[in-house]
Amino acid sequence: MTVASTLIAGTQGQELAGQTVVIIGGSSGIGLATARAVRAAGGDVVLTGRNRDRLAAAAAQTEPLGMAAFDATDDDALAAFFEGLETPVDHVMVSAGGSYYAPLAEIDFERARREVDEHVWLAFAVARHAVGRVRAGGTLLFMHGTGARRPGIGLGVAAAITAAMPAVAANLALELAPIRVNLIAAGFVDTPLSARLLGEELDARRAQLREHLPIGRVVGPGDVAALALHLMTNTALTGATYDIDGGQQLVAGAGA
Q1: Alpha helix segments (H runs only) across 117-191
Q2: Which of these, 179, 185, 182, 168, lies nearest to 219 by C-alpha position?
Q3: Tell me: the pLDDT tens digits for 170-228?
Q4: N- to C-terminal Cα distance for the chain?
């Protein structure tokens, strides 16, 4: 058993018994790991994702109450999804979206706008649709990263989103109360998305992190899933940003 799986095992009780968690972007990586953790904690899941095949594979592992394949940045599709939910649900987690890095001269503005849509505007859209569908005391949980907190060439778009998301979460926590709203800010997480982005450089990145991170290992999807469950079940937490990066921000050698 790995350290990451041990962390998930530590949540395996009935903390979420009788509760339903909607995971937008639940077909792989962090979303899928969270779905598994929810099921292990006695809860039910509803999964969404863009790719029908990946979504079907995730459903085979998690036995969800329901699933829907659509682009979450399509507000009509998102609205239809929420309208079709059997309500109330207890928690909604948004793990969709990635990060975009490019120097100013090379920015693809269409792609950059999509990145903003997938994080900032999606958070507002999910929040609006959640009203009346997420129970009082339930959770909206958003995700972004920590890597663009330090200025650098090519980090402008990611930095803008990184700066915006904590403010979005804090303000929505006030507007949606007693629904709770929190943000998970992750460093490098060893997911299929990371593998696609890094390609042949993945093993070198893992080795670098093992050497330099204070925790001595790479953060995995199960680590983030364990934090997500804690934020769902601890009803004192709202309006805050929770970093999970294995100490990556503390040591120069770990990189952005």
Answers
A1: 122-130, 156-176
A2: 185
A3: 999 999 999 999 999 999 999 887 888 788 899 999 999 999 999 999 999 999 999 99
A4: 29
Question: Which helix H or strand E contains 180, and what residues bound it?
Answer: strand 180-186
All domains in the chain, ordered by first residue: 3-7+16-245 (3.40.50.720)
User: What is the spatial distance between Cα 93 and Cα 140, in angstroms, rounded to a whole number?
Assistant: 6
Residues 53-66: tens digit of each pLDDT: 999 999 999 999 99
CA 128 to each of CA 17, 92, 131, 133: distance values in angstroms, whole numbers, following the listed order: 26, 12, 6, 10
Instruction: Please name the residue that has the structure tokens 């490098």.
Output: 188
Place of tokens 């859209």: 125
Indicate the pairing of strand 66-69 with strand 180-186: unpaired
Q: Measure the CA–CA gap between 163 and 183, rounded to whole angstroms.
A: 12
Omega into 178 within 30° of 0, i.e. cis?
A: yes
What are 126-175's pLDDT values in tens digits?
A: 999 999 999 999 999 999 998 778 889 999 999 999 999 999 999 999 99
Q: Are 101 and 162 in contact (CB under 8 A)?
A: no
Token readout for 196 is 């696609």
Residue 92 forms beta bridges with which residues? Answer: 22, 140
Token representation of residue 249 = 């921000």
Token pair for residue 156? 């402008």
Q: Average pLDDT for residues 39-63, to the nearest whole number?
A: 96
